[in-house]
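Final report, results section. Input specification for complex C-07:
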Amino acid sequence: MYDSVKVITGIIIFLFLMTSPLWYNLATGKASYVPELKIDSTETQCVESTEFMRENHMELLNTWRNEVVRGGSRIYRASNGKEYEKSLTNTCMNCHKERTEFCSKCHDYAGVKKPRCWNCHNEPNLETSQEGLVYGN
Amino acid sequence: MGINRRSFLKMAGLASISGLGIKGFTKAFGSESETTKDKKQKLALVIDMRKCREEQGCRDCILACHKVHNVPEIENPKHEVKWIWKENFEHAFPSQNHKYVSDKVKSAPSIVLCNHCDNPPCVEVCPTQATFKRESDGIVMMDFHRCIGCRYCMVACPYGARSFNWEEAKPHIKEINPTFPVRAKGVVEKCNLCAERIAKNELPACVEACKEKAILFGDLNDPDSEIRHVLSTNDTIRRKPHLSTMPNVYYIM
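Structure output:
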């Protein structure tokens, strides 16, 4: 191979540059970063178990939405027998008070498309409610 | 040996007769008893303009409604949003208007709102079924999540009961009611007959706010209700009855 030294050094430099974000994150400790969620509540449990909510909150919210608006059914009977009002603002946000401290944290971390709930639904803290809203499509 | 044409036709005829028979049987004894079991409501309003006229210039019902539902107050009449408002007699009731309408009737504008029609044209035209007639009580509801803002319903509604959100609503709301959502720019909205309050056994906000008790709310399917009594003992009119939309808001002039 001609110029093997140059070619191999070039390849090594190229690989290093390509993977540099990984090294950077490892060095600064960002790789092990996990979003910290703040919940301001005395309640010990959500309407369903944490594992269920983590996986299925979007489907639960969607079902609630359709059942309330289109079906007129407003009470959710949880698997533990407790009853809750099916309401984002009046139930969920009693505990998950700050969208920016809870919802957005994971959605940003995972790069999930932000839902547009808060263009219409109110937050308990109305002053911060205009932050980072997604308008349009 | 296969069946011949004659016996095939015989069997087909018998099968269809028995099929029809079963359907008729269930219709007569099965489903009908079910519908009488789960009583459907037909919610309606009676607006007594005699009482309403007593308080000239009063806007209590409008203010109460717009406050609980976070309806923005927009000056520009082209962008305004309204759920309940005042309309002159000749505009509210063009088919009942004539040259010699009494001064009493003309003296004050009528309170108008969505009529929650039995035959709602807005529901008919909505391409996404964002507007629908609720089976259980006849409220013409809106699912704002589904509204794409095409405004077909605004064209279809002969009562002008629908408003489009041309502007961002939040800056135009003085005090936001945190328990009720606001609407996004680009959707259509209208009166929901306080579906969220009725669910909690409360009266509609306009009914509750009226000091003169000029607005009566009730279920037309209940023959013993006050609203049925009032309708049977008073002469009432409805807006634009010739369009056969069958409004559920009645007026005593």
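Residues 32-37 of chain B have pLDDT under 50 and may be disordered. Chain B has two domains: 1-33, 40-252. This concludes the modelling results for the funded period.
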